[in-house]
């Protein structure tokens, strides 16, 4: 079994730093890249914290994720959200059970509350089945306020505009998007990716929207690579700049562009979303919109706890500010 010392040696930091990061010590001053690197190494080494004797009265909450755990590992965005939930849940004396895609929900009634990551990725029958258990529910990474469910989201509406404005400032008006959709029979003008909806609305307002510049993947590196290869095979000119829905797809797109001898950012600029560890260490390093995913998970768990204990019954939404981090993949 991996130890804190093993993680520290691989991350080239002290065991004390690893311990404090994994326990989310709020008084620790450590940069985001180091923190994400420690989480990634801990996952690679299958590190498990030594569990303290749990109070037998600890209640269980459910966390539902739309994909399998391999997606979570490939995209640390979701892993960080889950860790934020779990750490705060432990503080509040809850146990956490994660339900991935295709897991049976038969024992969901054993949980006193439910956190659902995402929304549009689930079918209506699936969500209706979850609702039928009549448990307090909080959504993360999806705006469900209009549907009368509390939620925690990041301010992607502002950040999408900020990315487009940055490209325009560099004189790049021909801006495409590598968006995400899980459906093989997707409608290119009505994708589930909420970043795409903001992109389409703003680009249309500017008179710059071109559906031929929309590329679609499935949020994974492999799909980003395949989607970019498919676009290049059409022979159509590349846009000057590309908004990419997440870092995972951006990594795949970078590989396809590199193989095609297309220079980033001289031939095409890329800016992605989430600013996971892979963004900083990509080649070239990725410009990306930073999202505090751990805080999203922590706040979501607190929100659910309020509902469970009826300490705050009103339905509300928390919106976290994002930050555009500029690196080598875009003209700056």
From TrEMBL:
<feature type="domain" description="HTH lacI-type">
    <location>
        <begin position="2"/>
        <end position="63"/>
    </location>
</feature>
<dbReference type="InterPro" id="IPR046335">
    <property type="entry name" value="LacI/GalR-like_sensor"/>
</dbReference>
<dbReference type="GO" id="GO:0000976">
    <property type="term" value="F:transcription cis-regulatory region binding"/>
</dbReference>
<dbReference type="InterPro" id="IPR000843">
    <property type="entry name" value="HTH_LacI"/>
</dbReference>
<dbReference type="Pfam" id="PF13377">
    <property type="entry name" value="Peripla_BP_3"/>
</dbReference>
<keyword id="KW-0238">DNA-binding</keyword>
<protein>
    <submittedName>
        <fullName>LacI family transcriptional regulator</fullName>
    </submittedName>
</protein>
<dbReference type="GO" id="GO:0003700">
    <property type="term" value="F:DNA-binding transcription factor activity"/>
</dbReference>
<keyword id="KW-0805">Transcription regulation</keyword>
<dbReference type="InterPro" id="IPR010982">
    <property type="entry name" value="Lambda_DNA-bd_dom_sf"/>
</dbReference>
<dbReference type="Pfam" id="PF00356">
    <property type="entry name" value="LacI"/>
</dbReference>
<keyword id="KW-0804">Transcription</keyword>
<dbReference type="InterPro" id="IPR028082">
    <property type="entry name" value="Peripla_BP_I"/>
</dbReference>
């Amino acid at each position: 079994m991996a130890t804190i010392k093993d993680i520290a040696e691989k991350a080239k930091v002290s065991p004390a730093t690893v311990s404090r990061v994994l326990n989310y010590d709020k008084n620790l001053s450590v940069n985001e890249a180091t923190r994400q690197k420690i989480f990634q190494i801990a996952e690679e080494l299958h590190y498990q914290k030594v569990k303290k004797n749990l109070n037998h009265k600890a209640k269980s909450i459910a966390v539902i994720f739309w994909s399998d755990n391999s997606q979570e590992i490939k995209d640390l965005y979701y892993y960080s959200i889950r860790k934020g939930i779990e750490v705060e849940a432990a503080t509040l004396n809850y146990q956490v059970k994660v339900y991935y895609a295709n897991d049976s929900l038969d024992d969901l009634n054993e949980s006193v509350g439910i956190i659902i990551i995402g929304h549009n990725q689930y079918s209506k029958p699936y969500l209706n089945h979850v609702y039928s258990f009549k448990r307090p529910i909080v959504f993360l990474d999806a705006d469900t306020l209009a549907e009368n469910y509390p939620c925690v989201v990041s301010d992607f509406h502002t950040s999408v505009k900020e990315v487009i404005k940055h490209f325009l400032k560099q004189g790049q008006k021909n801006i495409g998007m590598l968006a995400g959709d899980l459906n093989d029979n997707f409608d290119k003008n009505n994708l589930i990716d909420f970043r795409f909806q903001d992109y389409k609305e703003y680009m249309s307002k500017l008179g710059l929207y071109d559906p031929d510049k929309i590329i679609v993947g499935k949020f994974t590196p492999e799909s980003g690579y395949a989607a970019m290869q498919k676009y290049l095979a059409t022979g159509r000119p590349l846009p000057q700049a590309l908004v990419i829905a997440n870092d995972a797809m951006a990594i795949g797109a970078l590989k396809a562009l590199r193989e095609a001898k297309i220079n980033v950012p001289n031939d095409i600029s890329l800016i992605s979303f989430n600013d996971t560890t892979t963004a900083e260490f990509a080649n070239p390093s990725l410009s990306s919109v930073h999202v505090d995913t751990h805080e999203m998970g922590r706040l979501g768990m607190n929100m659910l706890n309020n509902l469970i204990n009826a300490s705050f019954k009103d339905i509300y939404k928390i919106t976290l500010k994002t930050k555009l981090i500029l690196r080598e993949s875009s003209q700056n």
